[in-house]
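pls design
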């Protein structure tokens, strides 16, 4: 029975498995653990990489563009006031997007480099807008940098760092589980 299952898995090729936290599956999308019999003794999980499609990379590029556009919107709406009180409400959508975009990119590709790409786009766009001087008035910054701009950078960096840190922990846990499964099988072989 297991040999037939193994042959069908080899014949059909690798398959995509979505990340499913409810059932305890910590395997990222794009990686599959088919069971392979080693010397007819036991089934050993084997990691097979799946090529990420161009559609997935296009979705990651779109996520990068959305985070850059949200960065522009957030920076230009930072000086918003209600009567005379400064209210930087544009920080909230940035925190949400910067926390969600790495998870979406990682889920699409299964790679940490893709997960970090939207954060890099957000930070580069925000920093560029903060450092750029106006072409119309010499020496005048394009946006007003102050405590609101620092709040935007701080909240975005904190949300992004926590999201990528949690993803990296999941990534390392999967690698350790695979290594532990592969190490036990390699010591059993003659």
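designed seq:
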């Amino acid at each position: 029975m297991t040999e037939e299952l193994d042959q069908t898995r080899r014949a059909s090729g690798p398959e995509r498995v979505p990340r499913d936290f409810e059932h305890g599956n910590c395997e990222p999308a794009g990686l599959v653990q088919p069971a392979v019999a080693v010397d007819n003794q036991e089934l050993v999980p084997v990691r097979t990489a799946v090529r990420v499609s161009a559609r997935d990379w296009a979705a990651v590029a779109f996520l990068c563009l959305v985070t850059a556009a949200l960065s522009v919107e957030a920076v230009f709406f930072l000086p918003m006031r209600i009567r005379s009180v400064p209210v930087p409400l544009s920080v909230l959508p940035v925190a949400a997007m910067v926390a969600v975009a790495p998870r979406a990119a990682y889920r699409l590709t299964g790679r940490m480099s893709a997960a970090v790409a939207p954060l890099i786009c957000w930070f580069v766009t925000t920093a560029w807008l903060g450092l750029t001087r106006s072409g119309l008035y010499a020496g005048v910054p394009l946006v007003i940098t102050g405590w609101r701009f620092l709040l935007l950078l701080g909240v975005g960096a904190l949300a992004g760092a926590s999201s990528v840190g949690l993803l990296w922990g999941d990534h390392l846990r999967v690698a350790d589980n695979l290594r532990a499964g592969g190490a036990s099988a390699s010591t059993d072989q003659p």
